[in-house]
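Dear colleague,

As promised, here are the two records you asked about, laid out in our usual form so they can be pasted straight into your sheet.

NAME FIELD: protein one
SEQUENCE, THEN STRUCTURE:
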Amino acid sequence: MPEGQLDEAERRPPGVLLGALVMILTQLVMVAIMTMTPVHMHDHGHGTAASGLVIAIHVAAMYLPSLMSGWLVDRYGRLTVAASRPTVLAACLRFTARR
Protein backbone atom coordinates (compact mmCIF):
# COMPACT_ATOMS: atom_id res chain seq x y z
CA MET A 1 0.00 0.00 0.00
CA PRO A 2 1.42 3.45 -0.90
CA GLU A 3 2.49 5.63 1.99
CA GLY A 4 -0.10 8.17 3.14
CA GLN A 5 -3.12 6.08 2.10
CA LEU A 6 -5.44 4.50 4.61
CA ASP A 7 -6.67 0.98 4.16
CA GLU A 8 -10.37 0.11 4.42
CA ALA A 9 -10.23 -0.62 8.17
CA GLU A 10 -8.64 2.76 9.01
CA ARG A 11 -11.14 4.97 7.17
CA ARG A 12 -13.80 6.78 9.14
CA PRO A 13 -17.33 5.60 8.31
CA PRO A 14 -19.46 8.25 6.57
CA GLY A 15 -21.50 10.38 8.92
CA VAL A 16 -19.31 9.90 11.98
CA LEU A 17 -18.08 13.50 11.92
CA LEU A 18 -21.61 14.90 11.45
CA GLY A 19 -22.95 12.65 14.20
CA ALA A 20 -20.23 13.75 16.59
CA LEU A 21 -20.83 17.41 15.74
CA VAL A 22 -24.58 17.10 16.37
CA MET A 23 -23.95 15.40 19.72
CA ILE A 24 -21.40 18.03 20.78
CA LEU A 25 -23.63 20.97 19.85
CA THR A 26 -26.65 19.46 21.59
CA GLN A 27 -24.61 18.79 24.71
CA LEU A 28 -23.32 22.38 24.76
CA VAL A 29 -26.85 23.79 24.47
CA MET A 30 -28.13 21.49 27.21
CA VAL A 31 -25.28 22.33 29.57
CA ALA A 32 -25.73 26.07 28.93
CA ILE A 33 -29.46 25.90 29.68
CA MET A 34 -29.27 23.59 32.68
CA THR A 35 -26.39 25.48 34.27
CA MET A 36 -28.43 28.66 34.40
CA THR A 37 -31.74 27.04 35.42
CA PRO A 38 -31.10 26.95 39.20
CA VAL A 39 -29.74 30.50 39.11
CA HIS A 40 -32.83 31.86 37.38
CA MET A 41 -35.15 29.81 39.57
CA HIS A 42 -33.48 31.23 42.68
CA ASP A 43 -33.83 34.76 41.29
CA HIS A 44 -37.57 34.10 40.82
CA GLY A 45 -38.01 32.96 44.41
CA HIS A 46 -37.85 29.18 44.05
CA GLY A 47 -35.96 27.11 46.58
CA THR A 48 -33.25 24.54 46.17
CA ALA A 49 -35.75 21.66 46.33
CA ALA A 50 -37.64 23.07 43.33
CA SER A 51 -34.41 23.39 41.37
CA GLY A 52 -33.51 19.82 42.21
CA LEU A 53 -36.93 18.63 41.07
CA VAL A 54 -36.62 20.47 37.76
CA ILE A 55 -33.19 18.98 37.12
CA ALA A 56 -34.42 15.48 38.07
CA ILE A 57 -37.36 15.81 35.66
CA HIS A 58 -34.98 17.10 33.00
CA VAL A 59 -32.67 14.10 33.36
CA ALA A 60 -35.62 11.69 33.15
CA ALA A 61 -37.02 13.48 30.08
CA MET A 62 -33.56 13.58 28.52
CA TYR A 63 -33.31 9.79 28.46
CA LEU A 64 -36.96 9.08 27.56
CA PRO A 65 -36.57 9.97 23.84
CA SER A 66 -33.68 7.50 23.57
CA LEU A 67 -36.30 4.76 23.57
CA MET A 68 -37.54 6.06 20.20
CA SER A 69 -34.46 7.56 18.58
CA GLY A 70 -33.25 4.35 16.94
CA TRP A 71 -36.69 3.75 15.46
CA LEU A 72 -36.88 7.37 14.22
CA VAL A 73 -33.47 7.14 12.55
CA ASP A 74 -34.43 3.86 10.88
CA ARG A 75 -37.72 5.27 9.66
CA TYR A 76 -36.77 8.85 8.63
CA GLY A 77 -32.99 8.74 8.26
CA ARG A 78 -30.17 10.15 10.35
CA LEU A 79 -29.99 13.53 8.59
CA THR A 80 -33.72 14.17 8.98
CA VAL A 81 -33.63 13.28 12.67
CA ALA A 82 -30.48 15.39 13.22
CA ALA A 83 -32.05 18.33 11.38
CA SER A 84 -35.19 18.07 13.51
CA ARG A 85 -33.32 18.85 16.73
CA PRO A 86 -33.30 22.66 16.34
CA THR A 87 -37.00 22.55 15.43
CA VAL A 88 -37.84 20.54 18.54
CA LEU A 89 -35.73 22.86 20.70
CA ALA A 90 -37.46 25.94 19.22
CA ALA A 91 -40.88 24.39 19.88
CA CYS A 92 -39.89 23.66 23.48
CA LEU A 93 -38.64 27.21 23.97
CA ARG A 94 -41.86 28.58 22.47
CA PHE A 95 -43.92 26.34 24.76
CA THR A 96 -42.02 27.37 27.90
CA ALA A 97 -42.00 31.07 27.00
CA ARG A 98 -45.81 31.28 26.91
CA ARG A 99 -47.40 33.09 29.81
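NAME FIELD: protein two
SEQUENCE, THEN STRUCTURE:
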Amino acid sequence: MSVIRPGDERFHYSDGSHKWIPPDPDYDQDVWDEMVRQHKQQHLDEIRQRRRPHSSGDKPSPGRYAKPDRPS
Protein backbone atom coordinates (compact mmCIF):
# COMPACT_ATOMS: atom_id res chain seq x y z
CA MET A 1 0.00 0.00 0.00
CA SER A 2 1.17 3.45 -0.85
CA VAL A 3 0.83 6.79 0.94
CA ILE A 4 -1.26 9.67 -0.40
CA ARG A 5 0.96 12.70 -0.02
CA PRO A 6 -0.15 16.33 0.26
CA GLY A 7 -0.98 17.55 -3.23
CA ASP A 8 -1.92 14.06 -4.46
CA GLU A 9 -5.58 14.53 -3.54
CA ARG A 10 -6.40 15.70 -7.05
CA PHE A 11 -5.52 12.23 -8.36
CA HIS A 12 -7.57 10.29 -5.77
CA TYR A 13 -11.20 9.77 -4.79
CA SER A 14 -11.99 9.62 -1.06
CA ASP A 15 -11.67 5.80 -1.15
CA GLY A 16 -8.07 6.10 -2.43
CA SER A 17 -8.81 4.99 -6.00
CA HIS A 18 -7.42 7.01 -8.89
CA LYS A 19 -9.38 9.55 -10.91
CA TRP A 20 -9.14 8.79 -14.63
CA ILE A 21 -11.53 11.61 -15.55
CA PRO A 22 -10.05 15.13 -15.23
CA PRO A 23 -11.72 17.29 -12.58
CA ASP A 24 -12.25 20.09 -15.13
CA PRO A 25 -14.28 19.06 -18.22
CA ASP A 26 -12.17 21.44 -20.36
CA TYR A 27 -8.93 19.72 -19.32
CA ASP A 28 -7.27 17.64 -22.06
CA GLN A 29 -7.99 13.95 -21.35
CA ASP A 30 -4.71 12.75 -22.88
CA VAL A 31 -2.70 15.12 -20.69
CA TRP A 32 -4.65 14.01 -17.59
CA ASP A 33 -4.13 10.32 -18.46
CA GLU A 34 -0.38 10.87 -18.66
CA MET A 35 -0.33 12.75 -15.35
CA VAL A 36 -2.22 9.91 -13.64
CA ARG A 37 0.11 7.30 -15.18
CA GLN A 38 3.14 9.17 -13.87
CA HIS A 39 1.49 9.53 -10.46
CA LYS A 40 0.75 5.79 -10.33
CA GLN A 41 4.36 5.07 -11.32
CA GLN A 42 5.47 7.05 -8.25
CA HIS A 43 3.33 4.74 -6.11
CA LEU A 44 4.89 1.66 -7.73
CA ASP A 45 8.43 3.01 -7.31
CA GLU A 46 7.72 3.69 -3.64
CA ILE A 47 6.39 0.17 -3.09
CA ARG A 48 9.34 -1.40 -4.96
CA GLN A 49 11.81 0.58 -2.89
CA ARG A 50 10.22 -0.68 0.34
CA ARG A 51 10.43 -4.29 -0.88
CA ARG A 52 14.19 -4.21 -1.44
CA PRO A 53 16.15 -6.26 1.09
CA HIS A 54 17.79 -4.11 3.76
CA SER A 55 20.32 -6.56 5.19
CA SER A 56 22.41 -9.61 4.22
CA GLY A 57 23.61 -8.01 0.99
CA ASP A 58 21.29 -8.50 -1.96
CA LYS A 59 19.95 -11.81 -0.69
CA PRO A 60 16.30 -11.78 0.46
CA SER A 61 15.53 -13.18 3.88
CA PRO A 62 13.73 -16.57 3.75
CA GLY A 63 10.01 -16.47 4.34
CA ARG A 64 9.75 -12.76 3.78
CA TYR A 65 10.79 -12.21 0.17
CA ALA A 66 11.71 -15.69 -1.05
CA LYS A 67 9.80 -18.94 -1.15
CA PRO A 68 10.99 -21.34 1.57
CA ASP A 69 12.68 -24.58 0.51
CA ARG A 70 10.28 -27.49 0.44
CA PRO A 71 11.32 -30.89 1.79
CA SER A 72 11.57 -33.65 -0.85
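A couple of things worth noting about protein two: The chain has a mean pLDDT of 78. The radius of gyration is 18 Å.

Best,
R.
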